[in-house]
Amino acid sequence: MAHSYDFDLFVIGAGSAGVRASRMAASFGAKVGVAEFQALGGTCVNVGCVPKKLMVIGSHFTEEWQDAKGYGFSVEPPTFDWSVLIANKDREIARLNRVYQSLLEGRGVKIERGRAKLVGPHEVEVTSADGETKRHSAETLLVAVGGKPSRLQIPGAEHVLISDDIFHLKELPRRILIVGGGYIAVEFAGVFHGLGAHVTQIYRGALFLRGFDRDVRVHLDQEMRHRGIDLRFHCDLASVEKLPSGELRAVLSDGSELLLDAILAAVGREPNTKELGLEALGVQVDRRGAIAVNDSFRTSVPSVYAVGDVIDRIQLTPVALAEGMIVARNLYGGAQAKPDYEFVPSAVFSQPSIATVGLTEEEARASFAVDIYKSSFTPMKQSMTERKEKMLMKLVVERASDRVVGVHVVGPEAAEIVQGFAVALKCGAKKSDFDSTIGIHPTAAEELVTMRERCPDPDVSQTVLHEEPTPRRVIRHHEF
Ligand code: NDP
């Protein structure tokens, strides 16, 4: 006899992946429930991409005022009110939360408010804020609970903020220390510097943004220092003490001390898999707690699927959306799609920003002979301002096939430029295709189709960076 369940699909977590999977599954006619105990939209909408980008946009105005002088404007020194930025950001996020709610409800998805736990291969328990617990059954369960920022384990760690906290600070810290050398650390270094804070950023290794192209990392390092950010490498946070004045005293690994108003640890994110009931159910997780899935996102328990940051593949919203969509299409839309993690573009909204798609020079050289094309130039806008900032563009080409396998840009609107080139790379574009493409003049992006002179092959002994080897992104498809 066929089982009868409350739902065809019950999704745990209404973030990017969960909402997309729920909506798509419902649009194919599935009966869908989704549990969420926080605001709808998950990390990206509430404490990630969206509020961060709004803050990045806000923090650019300072240099816009400065640049305006070169174009004939006389600008009074602007004043900045943190509370206005936060209030307006909160209003926009609340609007997006409502949009997510209506998107789900519009498709007939039942939203269950509360914290969910898997209690069987087809059962979840959802406990609401007032302690009421409801049990739901579903033919398929989808875990899309995302991740959370990691915390430092040092004396005084309780005084150290994580990125979630930044979006609700009561005031702009005048002096901030940022620990870490990844996406979040460099992005917030730019935000706080742009808004007028004194920023010190420390990174434990030789050069931040490990995993990115070396030229990109060096370029951003120079530009951030040039802007006035106190960047310190081979440096870590040893301890923190809160002084009676309310200030924080940070002791660094080199023994130096800093007095600060805030310290942010941006030292990676970890999957939200504790207390989900995974272990009891036999859902296989890795050392970090990330759920292991096969190439259809099925876990070791056949009725349980997982997508998004909780599976620890690529922690990017558009990847989570694609994964959620694949699950819904495969289960209810008659598709048999597999994920494609080749040429996933990404951007770091640092200042200046970075965008990249494909292989770094180091990754490519490790596999085949390459031709490198590079250009560093002053963006046109800056030619009439006092700000002297360089833009970097770089192409990595496989010599034997002439195929462009990597595009790297550092500078204004890098992400807007690289998105289109990501299509070209996915289509297998060759350098000769780039060369035969007419540029749009005058733009920065035209540089990518006008680079003709390849860089001389490097003297490899000169280019070795003494650091941990770059982590190669390994996507593990488990056999379940
Ligand atoms: P990342 O993994 O990008 O960077 C973590 C950084 O913290 C690294 O520099 C790492 O150093 C350092 N680190 C790790 N542990 C410690 C420690 N115990 N003490 C000191 N330093 C430490 O993580 P983020 O938190 O910046 O971001 C998480 C993920 O979220 C990103 O990888 C990205 O996928 C996603 N994201 C994407 C954004 C975008 O698309 N624009 C924006 C923000 C986040 P080391 O290199 O030596 O390991």
Please sum up the structure shown.
The chain is an alpha/beta fold and 480 residues long. It contains 14 helices and 21 strands. NADPH dihydro-nicotinamide-adenine-dinucleotide phosphate binds next to helix 7 and strand 17.
Set down the secondary structure blueprint:
Layout: E1 7-12, H1 16-27, E2 32-36, H2 42-47, H3 49-59, H4 61-70, H5 82-106, E3 110-113, E4 115-120, E5 123-127, E6 133-143, E7 147-149, H6 163-166, E8 175-179, H7 183-194, E9 198-203, H8 214-227, E10 230-233, E11 237-242, E12 248-252, E13 257-260, E14 262-265, E15 269-271, H9 278-281, E16 304-306, H10 317-332, E17 346-348, E18 354-358, H11 361-365, E19 370-377, E20 391-398, E21 404-410, H12 414-426, H13 431-436, H14 460-463
Parallel strand pairs: 1-2, 1-6, 2-3, 6-16, 8-9, 8-14, 9-10
Antiparallel strand pairs: 4-5, 5-6, 7-15, 11-12, 12-13, 17-18, 18-21, 19-20, 20-21
Helix pairs in contact: 1-10, 3-5, 3-7
The structure holds NADPH dihydro-nicotinamide-adenine-dinucleotide phosphate.
NADPH dihydro-nicotinamide-adenine-dinucleotide phosphate (NDP) binds at residues 152, 179-185, 187, 203-205, 208, 210, 236, 266-269, 315-316, 346-349.
